[in-house]
C-alpha cells in the first residue's frame, strides 16, 4: 500500500464553501474510480485541511488520476471553481509508505437486498456516488445491528420501502476495499417509492437475466443480481476492482 497526503492551505472564511465543494465534486469522482479516503482533518484555525488517500500501488494512483481527470464530474468541478473564485491559497501532496502493521485487519460488512413487489418487479436504486449504474439497495452494517436490521433500515432510508426478508442470495468480498457484502432476497410489504440524500433514482423494474446488464453496468453489481435471479444455492465470490479481477467463486 501507498498513501497520498494532500494538504490545502485555506482561507479560513472559505472552509465551509471548500468543504461543500469537496463533498460534491472531488470525493464522488475519486471514489467512483477506486480511490480510498482514509481520513480528512482540519486545523482548529480552519486554515489547513489534510486528506490521506490509500492505493495498492503508485501505478494504481496514476490510473485513477487519469480516469478522474477524464470524467465529466472533473469538468464540472473546474467550471464550479471558476464561479467560486479562490478557495485555498495553495496545495501540495506527497506519498507515504507504511513502516509496519500496527492494528488488526479491518473489514466492513455491508448488506443488500433483492426485493420484489406483488407484480414480481425488482427494487433497484441509482446513487449520486455511482450514477453510472443501477444497483440493488443496501449499505453498511452499523454497530449493534444485526444484518437483517441493517438491511431493512438501509432499504427504508434509500427507497421508502418496508421489506420482509426471507433468505440469502450470496456472499461477496471486495478485497480491494475490505468490504464483505451479504445479499438477501425478500418482498416489499409497505411504503411509497422515494429518493434520499444518497439515492437520485429508485424504481421497481421487470428484471431477468436477459435485461439485467442494461441496468447493472458494473460487473460486480451485475453478478449479484444474476445470482439472485438464478436462486438456489448461496454464492460466494472474492474479487478486486479497478480493474475488475475475479479471485475465486464458489
Protein described:
By secondary structure, this protein is α+β, with helices and mostly antiparallel strands. The protein folds into 2 domains: about 1-95, Alpha-Beta Plaits; about 110-250, Nucleoside Triphosphate Pyrophosphohydrolase (Alpha-Beta Complex), CATH 3.90.79. The chain has 6 helices and 12 strands. The chain has helices at about 15-30, 60-70, 70-85, 145-160, 210-215, 220-230; strands at about 1-10, 35-40, 50-55, 90-95, 110-115, 120-125, 140, 160-175, 180-190, 200-205, 235-240, 245-250. Strands 7-5-9-8-11-12 form a 6-stranded mixed beta sheet, sandwiched between helices. A 4-stranded antiparallel beta sheet has the order 2-3-1-4. It has a two-stranded antiparallel sheet with strand order 6-10. β2 and β3 form a beta hairpin. α1 packs antiparallel against α3.
Question: What is the gist of this entry?
Answer:
The protein has helices at residues 15-32, 58-69, 72-84, 147-159, 212-215, 219-230; strands at 2-10, 36-42, 48-55, 88-96, 108-116, 122-127, 138-140, 161-174, 179-191, 199-205, 235-240, 245-249.
For the sheet with most strands, the description reads: 6 strands, mixed
Look at the structure and give the CATH class of the largest domain: Alpha Beta
Q: In one word, what is the shape? A: globular
What is the percent of helical residues? Answer: 25-40%
Multimer state: single chain
CATH superfamily of the largest domain: Nucleoside Triphosphate Pyrophosphohydrolase
Q: How many structural units, i.e. domains?
A: 2
H/E series? EHEEHHEEEEHEEEHHEE
How many DSSP helices?
6
